[in-house]
Prior knowledge:
Layout: E1 2-8, H1 18-21, E2 28-29, E3 32-33, H2 34-42, E4 48-55, H3 64-68, E5 72-76, E6 100-105, E7 108-110, E8 123-127, E9 135-140, E10 146-152, E11 159-166, H4 168-177, H5 181-188, H6 192-203, E12 208-211, E13 217-219, H7 223-234
Parallel strand pairs: 1-4, 1-6, 4-5, 8-12
Antiparallel strand pairs: 2-3, 6-11, 7-13, 8-11, 9-10
Amino acid sequence: MKIAVIFAAGQGKRLNPLTKKTHKSLIKINGVPLIEHLINNLLAVKTLKQIFVITGYKHEKFLYLQEKYQNLQIIFNENYFKYQSAYALTLLPTTVFDFDLFLVSGDFVMKTNCFNDKINDNVMAAMKKETEIEDWSYRLNIQGNIIDIIESDDLDHLLASEWAHITQPWAKKIAVHLNNSNELEILKTTMIGKYLINRSIKDRILLKPYLIDYHNFWDLDDKSDLQRIKKVFKK
Length: 235
């Protein structure tokens, strides 16, 4: 069985002034809030047991989701403006770590569904680059395992995408680390993707890239992304 955790706490400042009034995960695409596109795709996974949505900025705007979707729970991160996204792991019920986990950014947009029941390894979504624009990218070792995330314009580096899948055995190891005071300081200052990569090395976990299509998936960071998304969804 699997559990999905959606990270939707950030302020989305690069989309101002639009995000002064709405959270970027609630921007409507074809009349449906972005996060609902994401939720509905996750619900296509037959082994999915529950969805947790970590909120912060404009938390109250997300509460309707609990009434609309069964087995969906909102968790408010009151420190969203102070700590990095990995800290949100400490807010989850300990029972969450008894399952395989999808960890997904709330601004992840997909034209086709990339989530399925066959994903049963420790992976992070990745895309092959088509332009030399500098963006967050994975650094791999010679065995093809992810060992870092860096800003790079190198076409040979895979683009880092917006979700990861971790297996129950590793999830249980991570849960143990969350109780460590030194680990808490790391969690406060580290983005979730970087944290998982660093943790995989310490835990001797093989973390592989999971390739998805560059033309069907992207993250909503700024106004140019929003224009592209709306254009693609009109097709």
